[in-house]
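RECORD TYPE: protein structure
NAME: Putative multidrug export ATP-binding/permease protein
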Amino acid sequence: MAYVPQNIELFSGTIRENIVLGKDNATYDDIKSACENASCNYFIEKMPAKYDSYLDEAGGGLSGGERQRLSLARALIKKSKFLILDEATSNLDFISEAKIYNTLFVKGKDLTMLIIAHRLSTIRNCDLIYVLDKGAVVEVGDHETLLNKKGYYYRLYESQVGEIKTKTIDEGQENIEIIETKEKATSVKPVKEGEDYEYN
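PREDICTED:
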């Protein structure tokens, strides 16, 4: 099992050491792949020593979003079959968040995820959603089922998303359709020939 907490714990050491924590046999290719999937390779590559760049305690000098990306890379490098995401992308801009969830939902076909989130657009593609209010489960179902009930989930989703606006961005080998909400939260739909998944 791999876990990405809301409060990120980084320690004094290199980026490489922070990512491979608990997986000492990780190769450079493993590290690079995990970082690409977590969308953190772009800022690492800009650092003077790249993956051997030194971080201060608690990742001083990194933004909240960069710290979240490193924490996600640390989880992905374990290649676990079960991944828990606890508000794991709350500090990310909406395009970065969309890219990460695109990777998790499309490439992680054998991955079971438990996603804890207040941004409903990040969990709308889940097979099963448990809706909590004041610590109690008040509704259960997939996104469409819960919307059709027009209950608590429906009201929350409507208040966050409102009128759905979409735009498509070019991400090299694939295009990603962004659903932008009132809170800049997103959902994604890979626009790629032959792709089985649709998130809209």
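COMMENT: The CA atoms of residues 160 and 182 lie 6 Å apart.
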